[in-house]
Amino acid sequence: MTALYINEAWWQAVILTLILGGGGAWLAGRAIARTWRGMHIAILATIPMAMAVRFVHFALFDEPLLAPLPWVVEAAILLSLICLSFQHTRARQIVRQYYWLYEPHGPLGWKLRQDAPQQPNPA
């Protein structure tokens, strides 16, 4: 953390990046999945979110605004959280909406039910 954040303590960086930025990323991933948009929208939403988190570091603790390494680290953290939230919400959505076809398979996935109706063979 020392090389990433010059003017702030590690706990301040954790609060800003993980709790505030990560919470926003989690909510954004959930909202994007609930509106049935694709994962690419969630990935694109990470860019302005990482820029906003970087600006808060700059505004509150006089960190360098255009430092590339901290921005990339923060973007990677936010990207992982937004994708995790998106997939978790999408899995629950699929299982809830298509309950006759799919059942939960872990917190991030779904699988075809054993008693799911089979598609007829067009032969």
From TrEMBL:
Organism superkingdom: Bacteria
State the UniProt keywords alphabetically. Answer: Membrane, Transmembrane, Transmembrane helix
Where are the bilayer-spanning segments? 12-29, 41-61, 67-86
Claim: Membrane is one of the keywords in the record = yes
Give all residue intervals belonging to the DUF6867 domain. 12-112
Q: A Pfam family name for this chain?
A: DUF6867
Q: Would you tell me the protein name for this molecule?
A: DUF6867 domain-containing protein
- UniProt organism field: Afipia carboxidovorans (strain ATCC 49405 / DSM 1227 / KCTC 32145 / OM5)
